[in-house]
Design a protein that fits this description.
Layout lengths: L1 H21 L10 H6 L11 H18 L5 H35 L4
């Protein structure tokens, strides 16, 4: 009985050793942060299920419409006034630039 146990232990040890020999040891390779940033991994494209996409389309459209924030009257009034002020400011600015160029041309007698 002791001989059988001893043989089993020896067999188990040899099996364990053989298994360890079969599996190569994996070594970790250290990669720098710059190399990791420069490596680009291509994503595999999945096939699109067009039937499912057509069924989900109305739901997606409704979700996108709900994301839109509609402006109120006060907000629109404020934006309208800001746009008008910018238009007036730039109209005056370009008018003054035009007068300056005209005066410059008269000074050098081109006009």
């Amino acid at each position: 009985m002791a001989m059988k146990k001893q043989n089993q232990v020896i067999l188990e040890e040899t099996n364990i050793q053989e298994e360890n020999l079969d599996k190569p040891k994996k070594k970790k390779i250290k990669i720098s942060k710059q190399t990791k940033k420069s490596i680009k991994v291509k994503k595999q494209k999945e096939k699109k299920n067009f039937k499912l996409a057509m069924k989900e389309l109305p739901i997606k459209i409704v979700k996108e419409i709900n994301k839109i924030k509609w402006s109120g009257w006060d907000n629109l009034k404020k934006k309208y006034i800001i746009v008008l002020l910018f238009m007036v400011f730039f109209a005056i600015l370009f008018f003054c630039i035009g007068l300056g160029i005209e005066a410059l041309f008269r000074l050098i007698k081109v006009y």
